[in-house]
């Protein structure tokens, strides 16, 4: 399994990354001939106003994320693991990560209390900003889910991830509509890998499409609600489902963190 974070980050992390971690994919993978999120297409301006780009240094896209409210961002754990808040700059309000609508700074990083325990599980984190986000047409929060995703529902992935494995981030935000893959079907497809658990949700469209490096931490939205955060997959668009953190499963943890509670829910 590969994680979708860009290798650029390896130069910037505070602690040396562990060898396992570099296998994870950050963000949705994309690598088709028509490529972007592999096999995706350019998103219209304002299509995903909740989308953010996490940048260790402003000007370098690392991961995606989504705005939950005025001062909280959600992303994948592997996107912010080993980072100090000063290396998590949050770019909002733009379809071009290199042309920020605004840049916000991070006050606190909250990894899931069971991040990577077991390996590849609970890959979700919350980032609290130093300042409230100013909302506008291009900058809006995304609602949390109120029920699990049902078979047949469409899920939209957005991200600046590469169109080839380990490729660089694309300039313009891409989108890709995917289907929901029931847990058992996905689990069997991956031969019951221990890297998958109850906190994961799988998505798939077709071979040649999927999340890719740089999409990690980014949002998957269904019926106007955030249902997934890009976790891992086999890069990129090789015909297997992508595996995401299931936001519905983590609702209690998310709500308790945002309200200042430190209880560990999983
Ligand atoms: C920031 O947003 C929160 C939540 O809406 C609000 O309670 C608080 O007053 C805001 N702070 C400032 C400085 O605007
Ligand atoms: C699952 O196992 C089969 C049989 O060994 C193999 O062909 C297939 O590639 C495996 N699937 C994955 C996703 O690794």
Q: What does this molecule look like?
A:
This protein has 266 residues and is mainly β. It has one domain (1-261): Thrombin, subunit H (Beta Barrel), CATH 2.40.10.10. It contains 3 helices and 15 strands. It has helices spanning 77-80, 183-189, 251-258; strands at residues 2-3, 41-42, 51-55, 63-69, 72-75, 89-92, 102-104, 106-111, 125-129, 154-159, 174-181, 200-204, 219-222, 225-233, 242-246. It has a 7-stranded antiparallel sheet with strand order 7-6-3-4-5-9-8. A 6-stranded antiparallel barrel has the order 10-11-12-15-14-13. Strand 3 and strand 4 form a beta hairpin. The radius of gyration is 16 Å and the shape is globular. The structure holds 2-acetamido-2-deoxy-beta-D-glucopyranose (NAG) (2 copies). One 2-acetamido-2-deoxy-beta-D-glucopyranose (NAG) is lined by residues 70-71, 132. The site of one 2-acetamido-2-deoxy-beta-D-glucopyranose has 3 residues, from loops.
